[in-house]
Each structure stands twice: as structure tokens, then as C-alpha cells.
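haha ok so turns out i had the wrong file open the whole time. this is the CORRECT one, sorry everyone. sequence first:
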Amino acid sequence: MIRSALLLFFITICSFSQSHKTNCVPFLESAVTQFPNVRDLAISQNGTQAVYSAQSVMGDVSALVSSEYNNTTWSAPEVLPFSGQYFDIEPFFSSDGLTLYFASNRPLDNTSVETKDFDIWYVTRPHLTGNWSEPQNMGAPINTEMNEFYPIITDSKNFYFTLDNTTLKRKDDIYISVYNNGTYETPKPLSDAINSDGYEFNAYISPDESLLIYSCYNRDDGLGSGDLYISFKQDNQQWSPAQNMGPVVNSDKMDYCPFVDMKTQTLYFTSKRNSTKTSFVKKLNITGLKEVFSIYENGLSRLYKVSISDILAKNKD
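then structure:
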């Protein structure tokens, strides 16, 4: 339930100037800068593995790569064994780390290499250091002839995802398929507290389904392009009206693909924020140009992290 203190928090951060400096910091910087674009991060619950999408400059090539955490540093990224041929994006680990879900346009079987619409797929492994299986399609009722994206599975096994339902006069919405007696029910869109006639996509839902953070595009209260919004499950089990997370998190560029480490209360997300345009205060030589070109906030997709412990604490007040 959103308390008055939380509402005051949102009013405060949303009243800041858009030029207010955020406390978001780069994540996996040494790995991320190897690729033109990096997006949609997932971290295993034990914190030892990060999987993310490495993409081309134009975003028309995408593969899932993995980095391992070795006490103090992240290892060099490697393409996951089942990826690298088709357009794979948006990974998410099951709570035990033995299943990895993702979205892909790969064909339904190995007899064809012709791509199709985007479906939700998954791979499994027998233990945390085991090899991943061949990808399996989630099938109906999750997948349809339309595009399904951004899979999230909770502790109850309820399944959330983004659906571009072309049968409706709407844009992308967040859907849920309830897990009931060993099967998934027909997916339904979340309420108007979350969805609208515009674009809602890339939703992170906490394992206990008490927290939802997702992207909304070009809303009236947005800072520009796509922003991250937050909602909490209320006492009546309905989602509270989503609130813009403000310039402490969002920028005037696209901010999307959230993932939360609930143990550390850290929000990870992708942003196309750009600080290179403010760097030309004087004529640059070759060294200066290279420094500008190597700025992390360069307008391409980059990974960031920020603590949301204050937000979560205020929600409990």
C-alpha cells in the first residue's frame, strides 16, 4: 500500500529539474563498452552470473552473453551456447537459477532457419555450473501468433510478459498468466493502474509480486522518451496507480529494461542517456575527441544501477 510518505517522496523527486544529476552509476562498464549496445540485464539470485543482450550499432543483431562474478570482478563476456544465431533478448532467471527465460524470433524447430514472430523461450540446466539445454518454446497460452517479450516468473510461478496485441486498439501492454493447478491460464492484461492506450513494456515484478517497475513511453508526466514507473501491490491485492520514478532514475532519453536485486535493493536498468553533447566547450584535439568518444553516457544503450532502498523503506512506513 502506498503511504503518504511515499507519495511525498514521488512529489519531491518529480519536482526536481531535469538537469538534476542522478546517482545512477555504470554497471559492468568494462564488459558493456566492448559492444555498441547492451540492454536487458538479468542477474542470478546468488549474484554470480549476469546475462544481458549485446547488440549491433543499429540494434539489428542481438545475442545473449554471460559474465561470471569472481568475488571482486566480472569475467569477460561469452556468448551463451544456445545464442548467437537468432535475435535473442530479455533474459530472466528462475529463483533457483536453473531456468533462463528469454525472448527470441528463432524458428520453432531445427528444420528451418527462417525467423518468426517473437516468442518466450527457456533453457534449463541440472545445477548452477551445468550446461544449458537446447531452447524450448513456452507454447500456448503464453505464446501466440503475436509478439511476446520480457518474461518474468515469480515465486508463485505466475508469468508476466509484454504483449503487442494487434487485435486491440492499444500499444504494448503488461500481461499476466496465472499458474493454477500445474497449468497456465489464458493471459490477461494488468489493470489500467498499469496499462493504458500507449506503450507499457519491460516489466520487472518482484518474486513475491509486491513490486512492479516498468517502462512507459512518452507519458504526459514523463521526462522524455521512455521512463521507468513504479507500482506496489495494495492491501486489496490490486496494483497502485503507477508513479514516475523521477530524475533520480530517469533521464530525458529512453530508460527501460529494469531488473531489481531485492537482496541489495538495487535497481539495474538500461538507458540511452547522453552526456557527450555537453563536452564541446572548447576545440578538441585527437586526445580530447577520443575522450569524448569513450564517454559511457554516449546515447547508446548502457547498463546502470541505483539504490532504491529509500523507496522500498518509505513504502513500508
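The chain is about 10% helix and 35% strand.
again sry for the mixup
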